[in-house]
Amino acid sequence: MGNPVEEKREIIAGELKKRGLRMTLPRRVIIETLADADSYLTAEDIYHKFHAEHPGIGLATVYRTLVLFHQLGIVTKLDVGEGKARFELARTEHHHLLVCEKCYKVVKYSDFTTQEKDGFAELERLVEKMYHFRINRHVVQYCGVCPECLAKEGAS
Amino acid sequence: MGNPVEEKREIIAGELKKRGLRMTLPRRVIIETLADADSYLTAEDIYHKFHAEHPGIGLATVYRTLVLFHQLGIVTKLDVGEGKARFELARTEHHHLLVCEKCYKVVKYSDFTTQEKDGFAELERLVEKMYHFRINRHVVQYCGVCPECLAKEGAS
DNA sequence: GTTCGTGCAAACCCTTTGCACAAAC
DNA sequence: GTTTGTGCAAAGGGTTTGCACGAAC
């Protein structure tokens, strides 16, 4: 126990078993890579991070695993128009995003006011009723230019 | 005047001229196609919509034009993880999105409460200060399942 | 006449897939 | 032993690009 990555892996292993799916080395490695990361990763990012240690695991497996984990809700997929998707382990802690439209850096924050939280929860229920959608989650992205790119702009 | 599409086109023509760029037939056709549409279109959607009438205009031109218009802020780009991008003419009227994760249908709504509006404006300023981003816009997506896909789910 | 824009086709890149082999159960 | 998962390489699909021609200024 103790170790949060191991804990996470146990939970996921359970999820898989329930559906007759197996916990294999590639899946374990991908979970650990995602758990170690502090931000969204592309499939290639993940692949490169473990490739030195596990050269036997291929990129196709990373893609297949990410599709599977996304379907199971284990992983969150994010696409900000970069031409490739990014992933992270689904968290119970909800967060909003700051996306730099120049370099596609993504910054997360989750220090909401309670007012903010209540507001969103209420809105979600309202929208659900009005449009007859079943809403699973919401994504809030602030799009703009990050400090680094702002500095570059100023310099040029 | 009167006609809002013509008006829009005039404004865009001005934007182009300012930068030494030209208003051409393909650009005009793409603007009109986007102006006619009531929802986000893919590059191929746009291409197919005018292709019967303007068979001479190619798909590559659509892509090049969309990149240009996006840079100029004339067009908004949306990527919901569908594997292709969607576009619409940038509007002064801000809206939020409902995205169906099964069929990728996108529904927009813009009937916010004033409380909702003020809340977002305040948040944007706050986040701007805290993270030193220059924020241009925000995107709010409620992700879930649309009424049609819900019905199909129930039927199966 | 010069510059900018376009059409076409080929190239590119991310992602998916077919197939034979390997691993998990 | 059967089923599920994987590696590899090839295919797929959206998007971009090089180049020569055409259009806008």
In words, what does this structure look like?
The structure is a homodimer of 156-residue chains. With 156 residues, the first copy, chain A, is an alpha+beta fold. Chain A has 2 domains: 1-91, Winged helix-like DNA-binding domain superfamily/Winged helix DNA-binding domain (Arc Repressor Mutant, subunit A, Orthogonal Bundle); 93-156, Dna Ligase, domain 1. Chain A is built from 6 helices and 6 strands. A 3-stranded antiparallel β-sheet of chain A has the order 1-3-2. In chain A, a hairpin with a 7-residue loop joins strand 2 and strand 3 (86-89). In chain A, helix 2 (25-36) crosses helix 3 (43-51) and helix 3 (43-51) crosses helix 4 (59-71). Chain A is globular, with a radius of gyration of 18 Å. The termini of chain A are far apart. The model of chain A has no long low-confidence stretch (mean pLDDT 88). Chains A and B meet through strand 4, helix 5 and strand 6 of A and helix 5 and strand 5 of B. Strand 6 of chain A pairs antiparallel with strand 5 of chain B. Chain A binds a DNA duplex (25 and 25 nucleotides) through residues 20-27, 42-44, 56-61, 63-65, 67, 83-85.
Question: How would you briefly describe this protein structure?
Answer:
Two copies of one chain form a homodimer. Chain A has helices at 4-18, 25-36, 43-51, 59-71, 114-131, 147-155; strands at residues 41-42, 75-78, 86-89, 96-100, 106-109, 134-145.
